[in-house]
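queue> pop job 88
queue> type: inverse folding (structure -> sequence)
queue> payload:
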């Protein structure tokens, strides 16, 4: 997780960082707030405050009746981004159903399937369904950079990409990589596949520039920023949500996603 300068505003918290299960700030809006046990002092008087889906989250303590929050992380890492708590949180865009688990405080989302270039992959829907134990499902976790897919889903995605582009190269954790010369604007260059998550009545496709990234020191490889999960849970990470306003409405179990130019203070 990365952190930069932070300041406070009257309508919420301004924080240019990845947040989901934790956030880093300089100070508290209310010093009497009971900081969760996970909080530990960090250099430069930082604190880590829980923003998970439970009664101890900073969102619930600041605004018990409206524990909403929203954030937008710019692809320009030199900018200061906004994290807003409470009634003024930005809840716009595609509304996606969130699920609450009795055992875990993650933000589970109701993913029905994955599409590549508009075609739904052959993945059993149960792969993404939240289990009662919470050990299977799909969660949004902006404290995680990459997006991780459970085994069956990842293998189906990898197979489909290979059908389009040929056998991939593996580089470190990335299993779907191609020489950047594979892609081009003119023939015989191939286009980068576009991938999206299918929800009830909607499809959210990720930007090509976020899905495929040139990896430093890799002999000019471009790698898919979706990797294999070692567990049954799939994770939607922050990389694919750059330049997207993400709004959480826990009371109504809704997540909002809207592509945008991230606002600055």
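queue> result:
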């Amino acid at each position: 997780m990365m952190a930069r300068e932070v300041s406070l505003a009257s309508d919420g918290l301004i924080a240019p960082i990845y947040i989901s299960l934790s956030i880093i700030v300089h100070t508290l809006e209310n010093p009497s707030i009971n900081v969760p046990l996970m909080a530990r002092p960090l250099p430069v008087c930082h604190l880590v405050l829980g923003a998970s889906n439970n009664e101890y989250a900073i969102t619930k303590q600041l605004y018990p009746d409206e524990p909403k929050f929203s954030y937008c992380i710019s692809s320009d890492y030199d900018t200061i981004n906004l994290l807003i708590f409470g009634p003024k949180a930005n809840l716009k865009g595609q509304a996606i159903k969130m699920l609450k688990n009795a055992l875990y405080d993650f933000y589970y989302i109701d993913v029905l399937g994955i599409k590549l270039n508009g075609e739904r992959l052959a993945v059993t829907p149960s792969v993404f369904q939240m289990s009662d134990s919470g050990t299977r499902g799909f969660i949004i976790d902006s404290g995680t950079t990459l997006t991780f897919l459970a085994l069956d889903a990842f293998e189906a995605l990898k197979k489909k990409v290979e059908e389009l582009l040929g056998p991939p190269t593996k580089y470190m954790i990335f299993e779907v990589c191609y020489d950047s010369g594979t892609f081009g604007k003119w023939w015989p260059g191939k286009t980068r596949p576009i991938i999206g998550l299918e929800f009830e009545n909607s499809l959210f496709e990720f930007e090509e520039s976020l899905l495929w990234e040139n990896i430093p020191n890799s002999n000019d490889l471009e790698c898919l920023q979706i990797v294999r999960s070692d567990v049954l849970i799939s994770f939607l990470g922050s990389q694919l949500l750059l330049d997207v306003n993400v709004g959480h409405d826990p009371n109504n179990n809704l997540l909002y996603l809207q592509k945008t130019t991230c606002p600055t203070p």
